[in-house]
Specification:
Layout: H1 2-10, E1 14-20, E2 23-28, H2 33-42, E3 50-58, E4 72-80, E5 85-92, E6 100-102, H3 111-122, E7 125-127, E8 156-161, E9 166-171, H4 187-191
Parallel strand pairs: 2-5, 6-7
Antiparallel strand pairs: 1-2, 3-4, 4-5, 8-9
């Protein structure tokens, strides 16, 4: 069983191993993140040679908080093509004010753009990343839009100013409005015919 294999391969590095819906998730401390991932890649019983996804997660208002001390986590999905098995690996950043996790680019090259996306959208800094910069938002963008404390309408909006002949940034001017649905019924519907 995969849970037993992960427990054997990681030993004390596995803080928690969860089996739910026929999927295995292992939680790893930030200081063990890099060596544990290397072990999962290199150990003959694991052989997770492919990182198929990596993302940031904000557990700020999660109904069932999986970790009492952490708000931001990095979740990696691994695949062993040879052994036909999948594994979810989660690591909570030690500091919510400045979330830092070690980069996995040296373990799996495919982590490069995934980590840039998690940095851009959640603000997770990947220590040792060769080119950590924004990938989806503008270079002048302020904040991280997938954080739950980021305002829904953002801070600034961008538009082209025809008088200045350039793109300008200005405070958001969206006014909240209530959408009341308009109900249109045919006469035959109201009378029950």
């Amino acid at each position: 069983m995969l849970k037993d294999i992960v427990s054997e391969v990681l030993g004390a590095q596995a803080q928690k191993i969860i089996v739910a819906l026929d999927e295995v998730t292992v939680e790893i401390a930030p200081e063990d993140w890099l060596p544990a991932c290397r072990a999962l890649r290199d150990h003959p019983k694991a052989r997770f040679d492919s990182l198929i996804d990596l993302c940031g997660v904000d557990y700020a208002s999660h109904a069932v908080s999986p970790h009492a001390n952490g708000k931001y986590a990095v979740v990696a999905h691994l695949l062993s093509v040879t052994l036909n098995q999948r594994l979810r690996v989660r690591c909570f950043a030690a500091d919510d004010a400045f979330p830092v996790v070690h980069s996995l680019v040296d373990v799996w090259a495919s982590a490069n753009w995934f980590e840039r996306e998690a940095f851009d959208l959640f603000g997770v800094v990947f220590e040792g990343h060769p080119d950590l910069r924004r990938i989806l938002t503008d270079y002048g963008f302020i904040g991280h839009p997938f954080r739950k404390d980021f305002p829904t309408s953002g801070y600034v909006e961008m538009r082209y100013d025809p008088e200045l002949h350039r793109v300008i940034y200005q405070p958001v001017t969206i006014e909240p409005r209530e959408n009341v649905p308009r109900i249109v019924r045919e006469d035959s519907y109201a009378s029950g015919q």
